């Protein structure tokens, strides 16, 4: 297949009017492969998960990549502050017993261990919650372009950091190439519930959640 030149790709901020199209894209190209979503049943993301991603649109921190007017990539990001570990622990408790609750159980453990705002002694960070590229367009640097748009927006908003919990080996490699610094690794096999069961079981090659930070 003939691949487009990167200049054919346009990256734009997601407006509230675009939010529905962004979710349709994520349901096709992000959720069916995202390791946390795939690693716990049922396969479909829950409403609370989708609502959480959509709640980030009003911050103006979400971006989509377009090719000939068609969405080929999306990134969802939003601000967090030093209270994020406590906030996520509460959210995980609130959603306990559901798929979204199991995902939050793991993300809460990751946030407590990485604790990036306290670790870097900064008041806030822009956190990347989701990144997806059209299967047909992978390997063309679209993920990197979307992450660069997020970093630029973080600078404009005065956030000293961009942070991402890479649940996939592919996103981890991508941000390492962009100069992100690894601050924490949690292996899926080491994250257990109260009865000693592994909470999330993603398929290979995904083995861990790696938290990366870019200092701006
Ligand atoms: C993470 C993601 C956005 C990266 O896509 P991308 O920006 O196209 O990635 P890159 O440009 O860095 O690709 C580098 C190489 O990895 C390959 N690659 C990227 N994602 C891949 C995937 N999910 N499966 C297999 N190969 C993949 C590319 O084809 C490319 O290979 P090449 O060098 O032989 O051409 C993409 O994998 C994706 O949408 N995954 C599904 C959702 C997900 O898991 N998101 C991350 C959660 S944190």
Automatic annotation (TrEMBL):
<protein>
    <submittedName>
        <fullName>Arylalkylamine N-acetyltransferase-like 2</fullName>
    </submittedName>
</protein>
<dbReference type="InterPro" id="IPR016181">
    <property type="entry name" value="Acyl_CoA_acyltransferase"/>
</dbReference>
<feature type="domain" description="N-acetyltransferase">
    <location>
        <begin position="9"/>
        <end position="204"/>
    </location>
</feature>
<dbReference type="Pfam" id="PF00583">
    <property type="entry name" value="Acetyltransf_1"/>
</dbReference>
<dbReference type="InterPro" id="IPR000182">
    <property type="entry name" value="GNAT_dom"/>
</dbReference>
<dbReference type="GO" id="GO:0004059">
    <property type="term" value="F:aralkylamine N-acetyltransferase activity"/>
</dbReference>
């Amino acid at each position: 297949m003939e691949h487009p030149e990167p200049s054919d790709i346009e990256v734009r901020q997601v407006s509230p009017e675009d939010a529905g199209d962004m979710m349709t894209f994520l349901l096709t190209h992000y959720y069916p492969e995202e390791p946390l979503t795939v690693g716990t049943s049922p396969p479909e993301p829950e409403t609370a998960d989708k609502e959480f991603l959509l709640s980030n649109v009003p911050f103006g921190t979400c971006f989509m990549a377009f090719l000939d007017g068609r969405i080929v990539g999306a990134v969802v990001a939003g601000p967090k502050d030093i209270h994020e570990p406590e906030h996520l622990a509460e959210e995980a408790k609130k959603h306990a017993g559901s798929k979204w609750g199991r995902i939050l159980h793991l993300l809460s453990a990751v946030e407590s261990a990485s604790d990036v705002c306290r670790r870097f002694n900064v008041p806030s960070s822009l956190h990347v919650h989701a990144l997806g590229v059209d299967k047909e367009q992978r390997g063309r640097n679209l993920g990197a372009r979307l992450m660069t748009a997020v970093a630029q927006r973080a600078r404009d908003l005065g956030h000293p950091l961009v942070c991402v919990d890479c649940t996939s080996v592919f996103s981890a490699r991508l941000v390492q190439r962009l100069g992100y610094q690894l601050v924490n690794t949690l292996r899926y096999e080491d994250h257990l519930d109260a009865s000693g069961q592994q909470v999330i079981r993603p398929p290979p090659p995904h083995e861990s959640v790696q938290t990366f930070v870019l200092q701006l």
